[in-house]
Amino acid sequence: MxxxxxxxxxxxxxxxxxxxxxxxxxxxxxxxxxxxxxxxxGKLSSGKSAELLxxxxxxxxxTFGTFCNMTPExxxxxLDNARWASQxxxxxxxxxxxxx
Length: 100
What we know:
58% helix; 0% strand; 4 helices; mainly alpha; single chain
C-alpha cells in the first residue's frame, strides 16, 4: 500500500496482512480504513486524507466527518480555512481580470 502525494516527501508504507480466507477486503478499502483512522487520531489533516483517497476535501469531510471525532472547534477551523481559501482564490481571479 503506497501512501504518496505528488510533489511531497512522504513515507511509503507497505503492509502485508494474513487474513482468513473468508475475509474479503480490497486494497482500496484497507487504505480507506487506515487513512480514516489516522485522520481520527489527528495524524493526518482532512486535506491530506482526502488527497490520499482521491477525494475532494469536502467529499472526505462529508463522508468521514460523522465517523471521526471532529470537535466543533475542528469543524470551525476547517470552515475558516475553506472560507479563507475561497476568498483568496476569488481575490486572485479578480486581480487577473482587472489586469486585462
